[in-house]
Each structure stands twice: as C-alpha cells, then as structure tokens.
Amino acid sequence: MTTIAIFGVGLIGGSLALCFKGKPGIRVIGHSNRPESVDKYVKRGVVDDATTSMQEAAEAADVIFVCVPVGLLESYLAQLQQYKLKPGCIITDVGSTKASVVAAAGKLMGSDIYFIGGHPMAGSERSGVEAASSHLFENAYYVLTPQPGTPPEIVQKLEALLKHTKAHIVKMDSRQHDDIVGAISHLPHVIAVALVNQIRRYNDGNAMYQQLAAGGFRDITRIASSEPTIWRDILINNRDVLLRLLADWNGEIERFISMLQDGDAAGIEREFAEAGQFRKELPERRKGIITPLYDLYVDVPDHPGVIGHIASLLGGERINLSNIQIIESREDVPGVLRLSFRNERDVDMAAQLLRAHHYAVNV
Ligand SMILES: NC(=O)c1ccc[n+]([C@@H]2O[C@H](COP(=O)([O-])OP(=O)(O)OC[C@H]3O[C@@H](n4cnc5c(N)ncnc54)[C@H](O)[C@@H]3O)[C@@H](O)[C@H]2O)c1
Ligand SMILES: O=C(O)C(=O)C[C@]1(C(=O)O)C=C[C@@H](O)C=C1
C-alpha cells in the first residue's frame, strides 16, 4: 500500500488527489488546518481520509505532495523536517516556481528523505477544491526538478506514481524552469492583469468599454481572473526573472510604438504573421497550456432554440464539439457563438455544415 499525503487540497492538490484516489494499492490522506475543510474533502470523495494533524498525515505517508501557495512552501518543508517521516519518504511540491524551494529543500532534508521539485503545467483561473478535476493534467507537461544527487530509483518511483495523472513528465534544472515558465506563464498573467486594469480605468469614465468587450478581450484576459494571493506569491518569488522579462516586454511595445509612429504597415503585418506562425506551432491539444485551438464563430439570432439546433446539426454529422460559448458582446441584437473543436477536420466540417444551413460562419 502506498500512502499519499496531500497538504493543500485546493485546485491542484485536489486534482492530484482525484487522480490517485481509488487506484489499486493507493490511499490518499488530505490535510487542512480547518476542520470544516477536512469534512468537505471526505464528503466530496476527494480523499480517503482527511485530518487537521499535519504530523499524522506526514508520518503515515510514503509520498507527500505539498500543494500550498508558493510563499508557504518553505515553512511547510521546515515543519515536515520536525516529524518522524517514513524512511524512503518522497516529498514533492507543485509550486509554480522551483529554484527557491529546491534550494530550501536541499538544506533541510535528512538522509533517506528525498525532495523532488514538481510543477504540473496545467491549471485554471479558478481555485479551491471545488474546481479540482481528475482530468486537469491529462496530456499536460509535468516538470520535475530532481537534484543531481537524487537516486534515480527515487525519481522513477515518483514518475511511476504520476502516471495516474496522464501527464507527460519532463525533467529540468529548477533555474531554467523559472526562466522559461516566467516567460510563458508569469509574464502573460502580468500582461493580462495590466491590460484589464487599463481598460477598467477607461471604463470608469464610460461603461461602454465593458459592454463592447468581446471575444478578443476575453481570450487574452481569462487568466486575469486568477487567485490574487496565489499569483502575488508566484510573482514575488520569481521577481528577478520577471523584471528582466518585463524590460524585454517594454522593448516589444516600444517597437509597436515606433511602427505606428512611422506608419510602418509592412512591419505590423510581419509582426502578426510571425506571431501567428509561432502560435500555430505550439503543441497541439496540450491541455492546460493551451485550450481548444480550433474555433469558429457563428452569428446567431437571439432566440433560445438556436444553440440546440446547432448542437444537433453537429451531432447528426458526428462532429465532436469540445466547447460552446455565447459571446455576450451586444445587447438586444443577434449574438455570436464560439464553437471549439479538437482538430482542423472537425472545424472545417462544422463550418461547411453550418453554412449549408444558412448560418453566417467565421473561422
Ligand atoms: N492555479 C494554477 O493554475 C496552478 C497550476 C500549477 C501549479 N500551481 C501551484 O499550485 C499551488 C496551489 O495552487 P492552487 O491553484 O491549487 O491554489 P488553491 O487556492 O486552489 O489551493 C491552495 C491550497 O492551499 C491551502 N492553504 C494552506 N494554507 C494556506 C494559506 N495560508 N493561504 C492560502 N491557502 C492555504 C488552501 O486551503 C488550499 O487547499 C501553488 O503553489 C501554485 O503556484 C497552480
Ligand atoms: O490555464 C490557466 O489558467 C493557467 O494559468 C495555468 C498555468 C499557466 O500559466 O499556463 C498557470 C500557472 C501554472 O503554474 C501552470 C499553468
């Protein structure tokens, strides 16, 4: 029997618990300081057992997942150090930054207790156990940052366990992780928040900004709704990397300013073409890094039956729809539906079918 203890049964900890729970030979214990949370985890069936005693959970565990906000990781590791952990116990975390926690763990761990940094590259703007899902990590990358001294069989043991997440494991150095993830995750969160706040300030003077905000604004700003305390910790922790990235970002914006000042149409076109090409080459369907890529937009009359009609047309042709969203861009006039598909073939077939039924479709 492998006993897994999870500290912080929120979005990520809860999703891991759901991946492990019920698998042969695995028992999952969740920990929270709050008795009401402990009851909730068990009632919702996220864990086998839950406790408010950190010591009890830690000392029973073969593998410990620390899934708390980044700013608390080091104090959790220090606390774990106080307990009589099982020999061979593996401690891992899921924090969005890796260099500082790996450095702290190196100082703390005793003999026959192993720390391996971890970071599943999947998540959501939502938080808490209510948002947890056993599918969250499917096809996403899951970074591990073992130290050169970590015995290979220990790393293999963790990798074998993580197979239950259906994620792809990738190993890298913790500092390299923070450089890359700073660029592809932390910087975009800063940009999304700054952009939303810029528009929010305009909107204070004229509420039409919010009303007209349509698909483009929603697409680029979803992550601005992420949990503030989680992101406060991540940004502060990775601040040196972010300050460098933001200086480069200023350079990108300056280039756009110059192109606009110079009326450099070819330059602007080139920027879009190059960006579009790179984005097209992003790994397809890597859940968590990028969600459905194959979207089409349908103008729809403002009546309730239309969504059902479109869904049954697609279903009738066995075209798999992976998501449907009403874009509330206009009041009292026809709206726009965004339909998302898993592959190019499905989106093309859907466009053809809907046009044949006189819908106005934009791919
Ligand atoms: N949200 C994402 O998309 C994402 C993706 C990958 C990794 N991560 C990392 O996973 C970790 C957990 O993030 P999450 O999104 O699951 O957050 P969450 O808010 O959903 O869960 C955090 C958990 O930590 C617990 N916790 C314990 N002490 C706390 C305290 N003092 N303040 C707040 N929470 C406390 C909470 O009860 C909760 O169970 C973070 O280190 C984060 O960087 C997040
Ligand atoms: O999809 C989202 O909402 C996310 O923010 C997920 C995301 C990301 O930026 O890609 C966020 C933080 C993580 O540490 C890993 C993944």
TrEMBL record:
EC number of this enzyme: 1.3.1.12
Catalytic activity: prephenate + NAD(+) = 3-(4-hydroxyphenyl)pyruvate + CO2 + NADH
Pathway linked to the protein: Amino-acid biosynthesis; L-tyrosine biosynthesis; (4-hydroxyphenyl)pyruvate from prephenate (NAD(+) route): step 1/1
Pfam families: ACT, PDH_C, PDH_N
Keyword hit for rRNA-binding: no
Keywords, sorted A to Z: Amino-acid biosynthesis, Aromatic amino acid biosynthesis, NAD, Oxidoreductase, Tyrosine biosynthesis
Protein name, UniProt field: Prephenate dehydrogenase
InterPro entries in UniProt: 6-PGluconate_DH-like_C_sf, ACT-like_dom_sf, ACT_dom, NAD(P)-bd_dom_sf, PDH_C, PDH_N, Preph/Arog_dehydrog, Prephen_DH
